[in-house]
């Protein structure tokens, strides 16, 4: 059941990332059109583009952790004996879990500290810049737990 929930969350992140990428392309296209055709650059387009890059990237990072697409030292794992390889994989996923928790906690603190400030061109709170990292950190924790459970059961998490 937990694996199905994580799989669904991963798929949702992928679809949200795709939607964010489409919005990003539209915002940048409008910015270029405004600058070179209308001779009037829309000020909100750059701020929105930067915000969308954060969302797309963080959703992609979370999906990458679930699908084991993150940077790893595979050569060391391949060379290690089976008994050591499993322990190393447990350590790797535990460290990724700690990183996700630290990222979510740290970014939540940052978001809270700047929530009253506004992005001048969008009128949104500055805190929205930290929300994608909070979400990604929380998802990284969930996906790492899924990997740890799978390792304990002697199986692998199947990517979407």
Automatic annotation (TrEMBL):
It comes from the Bacteria. Keywords: Cell inner membrane, Cell membrane, Membrane, Transmembrane, Transmembrane helix, Transport. It is found in: Cell inner membrane. Coiled coil: none annotated. It is a multi-pass membrane protein. InterPro entries: DctQ, TRAP_DctQ. The chain crosses the membrane at residues 12-32, 44-65, 90-111, 131-152. Its main location: membrane. Residues 24-153 form the Tripartite ATP-independent periplasmic transporters DctQ component domain. Belongs to the TRAP transporter small permease family. Part of the tripartite ATP-independent periplasmic (TRAP) transport system. The complex comprises the extracytoplasmic solute receptor protein and the two transmembrane proteins. This is TRAP transporter small permease protein. It comes from Comamonas sediminis.
